[in-house]
Each structure stands twice: as structure tokens, then as C-alpha cells.
Amino acid sequence: MPSTLRFRSPYRGEKNALVVPRTPKSPRGEYTGAPVPAESSTSRRKPLTALFGVLLVTAALSFALFSYRHKLAPTFPTGPSAYWKTNGAAPATSRIKMFAPSLGELPSVFADRYEFQLQGAKGDRAWLRMFPKGDGRISVQHPRRYGLPLSAAAVDGDGHPVADTEIYDVAVVRQLECLAFIRQILIDYDHEEHPHVHEKAHVFHCLDHVRQALLCAADTTLEPTRDRGVVSSPQSPHHYVGHQKTVADRAGGLQSAVHTCKNWTAVRTWIEENRAVGSQ
């Protein structure tokens, strides 16, 4: 039976070189079988050339698409969090001049402030002193320049509309108001005064609002694990000391987690300086 081996004809110089099947059992050592035309080196290179061409075209198209994407869509989402569902597409803030200036940051250690945990007049005063003058409302001229949405029109001291000026609420003040409202509901429950239906609905609205604010800030500071304390009144010797009861405290040290926070004093001053006309 003929072997499947092939070898090139000795007539290498001819254009129609032949490759014939080899039959080693022939008694005269002759070659038998029909001659088979050999593939030229040019024909063997054609598939490799075509494959190389396809790869080259693919690489060129990929580079062109990459360059086009960065030239025309520099703010295209680049991470999975950019595709989380929201209530609407957020504007590209990198292209918008922000109305609020950069007010700096400060290192801060969280600690229990007992006056904010008290009921009654002392606790009320602590919460009221925290709010800036003007009810957290500021006036902004030409708000579209800052990419701000449409809001209520600003008025002057006589109640006349001010051209190209609108009123906006500062988010942090609204969030603090929500916390103050939740505090009041807790105090009412403690005195067996249950909220009305609309107040109860507003409480859950506030909880959701503060929840979103916390996720927006997403403070990733690492805090030492605390022991479970005893919840009681601040005057009790067994009062839960919260953030102050840390691993370092048990070891006799005074170290606590340091957060990087916005300068609230500067923020409050900026709010008061830009408060809307008529806001107390």
C-alpha cells in the first residue's frame, strides 16, 4: 500500500515540479502512482498572509475605536458603579463650575456629645445652635451656569422677583433637619405621644433621605471594634460611651479612628454669607 509520505521532485528548477507517492516495495525501486502537483511556496504562504492581514486590520480598528471613545466621550462611565440605577443621569460635574467653593477638610475624631442625646430644653438648644442662620437656603445668580436645576425664584426685600436668581436648599442642612425631626418623634413616643399619619410618613421619608446621604458620602474610615456597652442615661456610671470605647482605650491608650471631614465651621459661614433674602 502506498505510503502517505511525500517528497519533492528532483526537478526543482521546473515550474511544474511534481511530488509522487513513494512505494518502497517496488522490485525495481521505481516510483509508482499518479504524479501529484506540488504546492508552490507562494501558495503555501497565502493563508498566513491572509491571517496576518486580518489581525492587522482588527488591531487598527480597535485602536481607532479606542481613540474615538476618548476624544468624543471623555466622561463615559469607566466602572461598574457608573451603571448603578439612579433617579436620572447625573451631569458631568467635571465640566460644570461648582457654585460651592472648596472649603477644606479637617481630621476629626468622633466622640459622644451628651448634649445632643438629651431630651428637654438643654438638648433642644444644642440642636438649634448647630443650624446656620438662614434656614439653610441660599440664593444663586445665573444658576444654569453651575448646572443647577430649576428652583424657586428669589425675591428682594419688597417681595419682587430678582432677575436670574433662584433659591436652593443646602443638602446638609436638610439632612440635619431630618435627624432633628426623627429626634422629636422619638421624644414624643417617650411621652406616649404618637405621631399623626403625615408625620409618620415624613419620618420614613427622612430615614430614606439620610440613608442616601450616608451612602453618598460613604465614609470608609476604619474604626476600632467597640465593646457592646450598656445603654442608659448620661448620668449613669454604666452609660454606653460609644465611639470612645475602642480597642485602644481598653489597652490604656487614647487613640481613636481619625476621619477626614469637611470643615463644618467654614461650610456654615459660607451658608450664612450666601443666605437668601428674608431668611432668618
Characterise the protein shown here:
The chain is α+β, with helices and mostly antiparallel strands and 280 residues long. Among the domains are: 41-77; 105-221 and 258-273, no CATH class. Helices cover 35% and strands 11% of the residues. The protein has helices at 41-72, 120-130, 171-190, 197-217, 247-250, 264-273, and strands spanning 18-19, 36-37, 105-108, 137-141, 152-155, 161-169, 259-262. The strands form 3 sheets. A 3-stranded antiparallel beta sheet has the order 4-6-5. Mean pLDDT is 74; it is low at 2-20, 72-86 and 236-240.
Strand tally:
7
Which stretches are poorly predicted, pLDDT < 50 over at least 5 residues? Answer: 2-20, 72-86, 236-240
Anisotropy-based shape: extended
Tell me the series of helices and strands, N- to C-terminal: EEHEHEEEHHHEH
Quickly give the structural class. alpha+beta
Largest sheet descriptor? 3 strands, antiparallel
Residue-averaged pLDDT, rounded? 74
How would you name the oligomeric state of the polypeptide chains in this document? Answer: single chain
**Number of discrete helical segments:** 6
Strand order of the largest sheet: 4-6-5
Helicity range of the residues? Answer: 25-40%
The value of Rg in angstroms is 39 Å
As a percent range, the share of strand residues is 5-15%
Gap from first CA to last CA: 108 Å
List keywords for this structure.
280 residues; alpha+beta; three-stranded antiparallel beta sheet; 6 helices; 11% strand; disordered N terminus; transmembrane; oxidoreductase activity; transmembrane helix; Oxidase ustYa
